[in-house]
């Protein structure tokens, strides 16, 4: 068996070459998230998909997120349900179509999942190197079963054609600083800051600190010796030696910090959320609106995608989901993934082939707008499923769709748009956002204070807990005082 540390470095190098950019190079521009790290972060985030209903999660079995990738394109997002592990859900939904796919798990899958997905002919299985799906941190009575399962997984791994490995890449220089700055300046945080200029300016920092603590508890093992024991049990004993071990832990911590930072940019703050703008439409559309926690979760997916942008000024991400008429086997309830994208130059092109300027004073011929493929356009182009007119479909976009994209979204049959609205009705150089406000026939949910003014707890209202009791947050509670941060369940 190859030394684990060498394997990890080799895989990182290979992955860096194969997935560096949608085009070939972006040297000298803004820092950019690698595809390997993007897939890893999305798998962790899918583990946190809000439970549609109370799930009795077995203490020994950890909920797991999964990203299915083919030809370096995301073709599905899954998370465990009460009855099925994420790997089993992928097998049910895709079957032999998993052949030659890469699977990114938020935890090392159990032997029952691994034997089936290996049998389906997957190309590579990557996993987060902490506590596996069958937890090794559970009670003593079940720890022996967990160790036996880990041994079975190792035997399956060593005898399979699929490459089972750890893929984590160090963040590029200034990536974390860039994510922090852009998260604080994004539409969702700035809308709150503009609406309540006298609000406590630390609300974003507090939210971020809380999420960092929460995610570290979920995805990291604080005790280094215990982490080494788990790595040895799951077949990564050679990663326990330095510098591999210290590098591994640092990479894991960096990714958790990045995830918490991006997640905090769409906060569960007071009565802010995604609502329709017209009070006359509120009662009519309310039943069609997603629960706020799910809407926020999907928007964070789009925010993560935005860090793959090739636009040096602004990153935009888009993700399309749809809702079946009845519950499916996935932990996402009735929702299923359609496609995703980010703004970039056309596939296969060299980055330097196109202008990257947007200065209004410059000659229009050397501006970028006519060459950049928008996030919504990429999501529609690379969708893995068709949009069915009889089902509710929704697109989550980190910025208001422009005049170029609005007709495409409507023409594709998408029923709902979730976005920010800071640019609505504006023209910026060659980009116009006039059509979104005039768009009819599609429900538009923009980030804003709940316009209904209702204090009644509804399906899509934030909740707070006192002494274990869930209660609604009155709309006017501390509304014009320092804002109180209300963190939702993930």
Give me the secondary-structure topology.
Layout: H1 4-18, H2 35-47, E1 65-70, E2 73-79, H3 86-94, E3 102-105, H4 111-119, E4 124-127, H5 140-158, E5 163-165, H6 175-185, H7 187-195, H8 203-219, H9 224-233, H10 244-263, E6 272-275, H11 279-286, H12 292-305, E7 317-323, E8 335-342, H13 375-381, E9 392-397, H14 406-411, E10 416-419, E11 427-428, E12 431-432, H15 435-438, E13 443-449, E14 463-466, E15 469-472
Parallel strand pairs: 3-4, 4-5, 9-10, 10-13
Antiparallel strand pairs: 1-2, 1-3, 6-13, 7-8, 7-9, 11-12, 14-15
Please characterize this protein's 3D structure.
- The structure is a single chain.
- By secondary structure, the protein is α/β, with parallel strands linked by helices.
- The protein has a domain of 182 residues: Cytidine Deaminase, domain 2.
- It is 35% helix and 15% strand.
- The strands form four sheets. Strands 6-13-10-9-7-8 form a six-stranded mixed β-sheet, with helices on both faces. The chain has a five-stranded mixed β-sheet with strand order 2-1-3-4-5, sandwiched between helices. A two-stranded antiparallel ribbon has the order 11-12.
- The protein is globular and about 60 Å long.
- The N terminus and C terminus are likely disordered.
